[in-house]
## 1
Amino acid sequence: MSYPLTDYDKKQIAKLPADIAALAQKYPCEIVNVVEAWDDKPFPSDYIPQYIETYIDAGDEPSLRVLEGSLTDYIPAKSLDDIKTIQVIIDGKFAYIEIESRVIIDHIGGVVFPAIATNPVELMQILTKE
C-alpha cells in the first residue's frame, strides 16, 4: 500500500529524531501517526478505555477491535514472524506504535485493559464474517 507524504507531513517528520524520521521512507503511514502522537501524554492511572483498535502492518481494517469491553472484530495474523508494524489506538489516540520490533510510541500508561467479553458462538461469528 502506498502512502504519499505531503509537504506538511515531511516538515513534521523532520522534527522527529533522525533515526525515527528515517523510517518514513519504508513506513510513511506509521511515521505520520508517530508525528500525530509524539507529544501526547500517557493515559492516566486506572484509565478504562471505551474503544481499542490494533492494526498490523498498516492494514485498512483493524486486526482487533474492542468496544466497551466486547470483542467486535478479530483477524488473526498469518504469521507473527512477519509482522513489521503494530499500532494501537485507544479512544481515538495512537497509544502504541512499534516498527520492526522497536517501540516508537508507548503512551499506554495506566490503561486498564478489559477482560474481553465474548463467548464461543460470538467468536466464531466474528472469525467467519465476511
Note: Residues 41-128 form one domain.
## 2
Amino acid sequence: MGRAAGIRLVVAAGVLLGGCALPRRPPAPPVDPCAAVLPRDTAGWTRVGVEPSFLLPPGFAPDGSARFLHGGRAWRSRGRRISLSGGVWAEESFRADGLDGSWTRECYATIQGRRVYLVTRYRSGTYSVHAWPVPDSTRMNVFGYSQLFTGQGRRPEDQHLFLGIVRTFRFAPPSP
C-alpha cells in the first residue's frame, strides 16, 4: 500500500469512527405511557377514523401527502403528525435496543375494554407515541393486519397530547 492510500485509509477510518457517537440523552425522557398526565377537556375535538376511531383536537388537518403500504390516514398540525396505518404489527415492531439512538418506554393499557400496547420514544429530536390495539381471536384480520396509531412531535409535551388522543379510542363491536 502506498503512502497516499494509507493516508486515505486513516482519514476514512476517522470519518467513520466520528459518525459512531453514542446516543445523546433526550432533552426530556419519554413519559411513562401508562402514568402520563392526559388532557381532560376534549370540547371541540372531532372524531375521526374507523377502527379505532378517536378524537382529534382543533387545528389538525388531513395530510394528503401521506402514503401507506397497507392503507392509512394522516393528519398534521403545527409540526405534529398523527397517523393510523395498517400493517402486520407485534410488540417486536416497536422495541429498540437503544443502539439506534432511541430512548423507549412501554406498557399495556386497557382502553374501552381492549388491550392496547403503548410505546413512547425519543429519537433524533422527535418524540413519538405508538398505540397498537392488540388483536384477539374475534378481531384478527384473515391476513393478520391490524391498525397502528402513531403521533410524532418535537416537544416533550406532545407525548401527553398523543396519549390523550389514544385514550379517546372507540372500537367497533367484535365480529360474531
Note: The chain is about 15% helix and 30% strand.
## 3
Amino acid sequence: MLRDGGPLSGSASHHIGRIKGVLDSLLLQETLGERDEFDGVNDPEHGAIGRVTMVPILTGKGAEISRIQQDFGRFLFMRDLLSARIDAESQMAGMKIA
C-alpha cells in the first residue's frame, strides 16, 4: 500500500526528484554570487583552525527558497527513514507488507 502507488512508490520518487529540480533551478536564479565563509575557531597558539567554504549570496526570495529546500530535505530524510523502518519491520516479521 505504501509502495504500490503510495508515498514510497517509484512514481513518488520521480515526482520528488522533479520538485527538487524545480527548487534547485529557482535557487540558482536567486543567487547573486558567492562569498568566502570561515567555519572554525581562532586558536591563540595556532591561529585559525577550520576551513573556508564558498556560500551563496541570495536575494530575499532566494533565502526563502533555501529555507523551503532545507525543509524539503528534512521531509525526504524522514521519508527514507520510514521506508527503511518498514523494510526492517517486514523482514523481522518474516513477511512483505509494504
Note: Residues 60-93 form the longest helix (34 residues).
## 4
Amino acid sequence: MVICEFNVPFSVDLTKESCWNKALDHPYGYYTIRCHFQIRERQAGDPALYGRKLAIFETCNGVQPETIHTIKTRLIATQVRESFCESLKQNESLQKFTSMLSSALSASNVGKVSSECKVEAQDKLVESFRDSFRFQTLVTKEEEREYKLTYKIDSSITTRLVTVAMYQRYVYDLYLTWVDYLNVRYIKGPLALRKKRIKRPIVDGCSHVNWIKFNLPLASASIWRPLPDSAVVIPEASYRNEVDAMEEFTVGAPEDYHKYFVARPDCPTLYQISNVAFPLKWVKRKTDYTEDELKAIEEGETDAISWFWRSNVM
C-alpha cells in the first residue's frame, strides 16, 4: 500500500534562490535536480509480539467478574514520511547521484541525460545507498490511544494479570521513482539593456522533457508498531517484553524488487517554481507559498520568447 510520495528538495523550499545550485560555468546561472520518492507500507510475515504493559489488575478469590475495561495510554509514534525526508536530505549517496546527473547535463548540448549515464548513475546509487542510508533524525509525536477490553476472569485465578499491547513488524519500501531538473540563467541579448531569464530545457506546451523515470527500489526499513485495537490479558508471571526497539527503524537492502507503475508526480513543476525564485524582472514578491499556489503559476515566460532566446544555448 502506498502511504506517501514526496520530493527532495521540497517544492516550497525551491521558491528561494538560495536553495538552487550555482552554476560553475556561468556567473548568472542556477540549476536544481529534484528526486521524487515513494514509500509503500506492508505488514511483515512475523507473528505479533508482546510489547509494553498497559495495565495491571488483580481479582479476589472466588469472584468471577465480567468487566469492561477501558485503558487510555500515550505512545510515542514515529512519523514515517518526515523521518525519511529529513534523512534523505543528508544522505551522501544521494548527493553524489545528483552530482553525476548534473555533470551529465552540463556536458550535454541539448540539456538531456543519456541512457548510458542514467544507468551508470543509478547503479552507483544502488550500490552505495544500502550502506550509507541511516535515519539521522527520527521525527516523532505523542499519540493518545484507547483500548476497550471485555473479559471474564475465572474465579480460581488469583494471580496478578497484565494487559499487554501487541506489536507487529511493518516494512516500508523506499523507491526513487522520478527525477526532474532545470537550468535557469540570466543573459543579455545583443540589443537588450538588462538581462533576461531563460530556462533549459524549454517547455513546449504540455511536453516536459526534463523528467527521467527511474522506478528504482533503494531500501527497506522495518519498525515494530502497536497493532490498533489489539491487546491481551495474561498472567504477569508469563509476561516478557518481546520487542526491544519499539518505534526504531532497521534499514536493510530492498526486500521488494517489484517495479510498480508510478505516474509522474502531481506536484508543482520546476518551471512554475523557477518563476517564483527567478522572476523575469525584479518584483516584490511573496516569500511563502503552498504547493497548490505553486501549481497555479504559469510555466513559460510571461511574454513571447524571441528567436534569440530560443537559439541561445546555455
Note: The longest helix spans residues 115-132.
